[in-house]
Structure formats: structure tokens, C-alpha cells
Amino acid sequence: MGILTLLALGLLGVEPEAPKGHLVIVGGGAAAEEIRRQTLELAGGPEARVVIIRHASGDPQAGERARQKWQDADAKHITVLELDDPAKAVAEVQAADLIFFLGGSQTKLMNALANTGVPDAIRVRFREGAVISGTSAGAAVMSRVMIVGQDRRTLSPRIAEGLGLWPEVIVDQHFLRRNREGRLRNAVLGRPDLIGVGIDEATAVMVSGRVFQVIGASSVVVMDARSKTGAVAVGTVPNPAEGAPLAESPNVQMHLLKAGMKYDLDKGILSN
Questions:
Q1: Among residues 33, 164, 40, which one has the least CA distance to residue 98?
Q2: I need a labelling partner for 83 at 20 to 30 A (CA). Which of 145, 244, 257, 271 fits?
Q3: How far apart are CA 269 and CA 256, in angstroms?
Q4: How sure is the predictor about 246, in pLDDT bands with cuts at 50, 70 and 90?
Q5: Per-residue model confidence (pLDDT) at position 250
Q6: What local confidence, expressed as pLDDT, does residue 228 receive?
Q7: How wide is the angle at C-alpha 177 spanned by C-alphas 140 and 147, nearest 5°?
């Protein structure tokens, strides 16, 4: 089902079918091999057809290094996507079981994919059941409302349009390592209908429908302003008990999630 069809269904008031695929969104840094192995298993195991999209990176060798890492995780069928022949690129995406985005610049990535047909092909494969994964910039593009930077003085985020694979959420990456609480909070306050998910390095969320689970070495911060009102209160992230609210803030409810914890976009933290 293409994006035009999805838009038409929305205009007609018809709810589109929920995607059958899964997202594995990595917060950047040196992702553990175990995250890659779990992602590959989710896509069908070593025989899964992996497509690497390298275009966020300015390093021409980045794709081949990523190929080696997926080979080390036991993947047998790996393609590093090239865009000089858009029809071929779309066909490779259509055949993929696992599509992985490298880090770098999310703006560079979205510009490279524009007018190739690849974004629509990715959305279709996600709806059909493929696993879509990405790290750093490749994590940011999962949102429809995509953070591409911030004003260093005001912490106001700069926003662009991402792929929209997780449209209910605004993703931020390198979250605790780069102290990005302020910019994600401000992004959520600007779009209080969306939930902010800040993913730290060497950590990922595995998304299935409206539920995600945290995997990896560090933490994930959830920010929810859907039922909150009041003045902006920007603070720093303390170190509370797992799952506890992070800070007193009249306008944004925040939770810190550790590995193994699950979160439902409608119900909040799920008990194991």
C-alpha cells in the first residue's frame, strides 16, 4: 500500500491497516552485537535479506563496514543500497526482510532518498512485515516530526519531515550522553499530541504496534505532554528508580526505562 493510498484512506475516514513489521531504533554509539543479532532474528534469522542504507554518512566506506558487522552477526544476504539506478534500488528494498539505516546526518539521508521511490517502498515493506532499523540519524528518520538540530541558546529544536514509520512519536538519539532532554521536551511541547522517546547510546527500542521494549546497555526516556498543561520547566534528568517519573514538571510527564522494560503508547509502562 503506497503513501498516496494511505493518505486517501485518511481523507475518507478509513483507518489504514496496522503495519505488520517491527522497528528496532538504536540511539547511536557503538551498538552492541547482541542488538544486531536480536534484530536479525526478528527479521527471520541468518537467511534474512538485509539492505543497508548508508546515505546519512559522508564516509564512502561506511556501507562496507556495516556489511561486515552484519556478517559478524551471521547475516548471509546483504546488499549495500546504491541510488544511481532508482528502479533497481526500489526493487532491492521490495525484496528486503531487514532494512538498516546508518548514522550521520538525517537531513543528508532524507535529501538523498528524495525522488527515488525508496521511501515509499520502505513504508510498504514495513506494512507488509519487514523489520526497519536505524542508528543515530537512522533513528531520527523513523519519526514523521523529525528533529534535525537545535538552537543552542534556546534549545528550540529544528524540525523537518522524516519517514513517518513511527508517527505517534518524536525520536531523539544519543539522548543521555549528549544531554538532549531540553530539546526533546521543547519538541514535545510544540507537538503535545506526540510522545517523545529519547534513546541513549548502545541502547535500542524494539517496536511492535503501539508497544516497545528497551534492549541494550543504557536507558530510554519517555516524555508525554498529552494530558499536561502549565509553564515550561526544563531541568536535568536525575537517576530515579526504574520507571519512576523523572522530575517535577507540570507540563510533561517523564519516565526512565531500563533494558527489558516495556511501554505502551496508550497505557504507559507495562508490568512484566
A1: 40
A2: 145
A3: 10
A4: very low
A5: 62
A6: 59
A7: 25
List the catalytic residue out of 22, 143, 201, 255: 201
With CA atoms as reference, report the closest residue to 192 among 167, 223, 159.
223
Answer yes or no: 201 catalytic. yes
Listed by start position, the domains of the chain span 21-215
CA-wise closest residue to 175 among 28, 25, 23: 28
Q: Which residue shows C-alpha cell 528496532?
A: 24
Q: Which CATH class is domain 21-215?
A: alpha beta
Among 102, 130, 135, which Cα is nearest to 27's? 135
Q: Using CA atoms of 234, 210, 123, 189 in order, give the dihedral in degrees to the nearest 10.
A: -20
Q: Which residues neighbour 62 within 8 Å (Cβ) at sequence distance 6 or greater? A: 54, 102, 104
Q: Choose the catalytic residue: 22, 105, 133, 174.
A: 174
Q: How many residues does the chain have?
A: 272
Cell of 256: 526512565
95 confidence band (pLDDT: 50, 70, 90): very high
Q: Which amino acid is at 44?
A: G
DSSP 19: P
Q: HSE of 235 in the Cβ direction (CA atoms, 13 Å)?
A: 15
Q: Specify whether 227 is catalytic.
A: no
Give dist(CA 214, CA 103) in Å, integer. 20
Evaluate the CA torsion angle 225, 233, 143, 47 in order and state its sign. negative
Catalytic residue among 57, 105, 136, 219: 136
**Do 25 and 131 touch, CB atoms closer than 8 A?**
no
Per the model's pLDDT, the better-predicted residue between 1 and 63 turns out to be: 63
- Give this prediction's pTM: 0.88
Whether 155 shows a pLDDT value over 80: the answer reads no
